[in-house]
Amino acid sequence: MNNYSLFLADCETTGLDAIKNDVIELSLYRLSDNTQKTWCIKPINLNNIDQDALRINHHKLEDITHQTAYGRETYLDPNKVIVEIENWVADDNVPTTNRVLVGANTGFDKGFLDQLWTKCNSSDTLPFGRRYLDVQQIEFFLNLCQDNMLDSYSLSSLVKKYGLTNTKSHTAAADTVVTKDVFLKQVAFFTALLKK
Question: What's the whole-model pTM score?
């Protein structure tokens, strides 16, 4: 898409507050070459883990806090993970200002990513700029123009509307893929509309 690089993103977290809670799973899908990468991350604030959040995203407390061998192998040091993310993202050879995050409720994920880099004292190396798109807002705007509003604009509602399937809801990897599929359906709709 011209000289912009679009990344679908989804985070699973230890709660809803980006300052108190942390990212424990992040998946990114780079549209330019259709590659996806997912990281599991050890939380920074071990005292602010919401059990309700873990019930939804199915991450286990004993794993994310490194009480198990599986947890120690899987949930990596956030300071090391952000460097790996920066290097992987940089493969697009696009300036940070030209990278666009795309997601469902993207403001939530963007806020957590901003805080992840801030907590690692690396806010100046965050590989994403200010631009982001939200499939829920795109759909809302589209329906508003058509005077045909949906009852809900949740990701699951959009998945159903477009006849898609989410293989494993509330996992960053699966939610990122299905958000990509929704976004591409929306892009196809607008592209066809502009050709009329």
Answer: 0.95
- The answer to whether residues 15 and 50 touch, using CB atoms and an 8 Å cutoff, is yes
Q: With the CA atoms of 80, 85, 88 and 92 taken in that order, what torsion angle do they form, in degrees rounded to the nearest 10?
A: -150
The CATH code for residues 5-195 is: 3.30.420.10
Residue 176 token pair: 């990122």
Quick one: angle between helices 135-146 and 172-195, nearest 10? 40
pLDDT digit string (tens) for the chain, length 196 residues: 568 999 999 999 999 999 999 999 999 999 999 999 999 999 999 999 999 999 999 999 999 999 999 999 999 999 999 999 999 999 999 999 999 999 999 999 999 999 999 999 999 999 999 999 999 999 999 999 999 999 999 999 999 999 999 989 889 999 999 999 999 999 999 999 888 7
165 burial level (CB within 10 Å; 0-12, 13-18, 19+): exposed
Q: Which amino acid is at 93?
A: N
Residue 55: burial class (beta carbons within 10 Å; 0-12, 13-18, 19+): exposed
Residue with token string 């045909």: 148
Q: In the chain, where are the structural domains located? A: 5-195
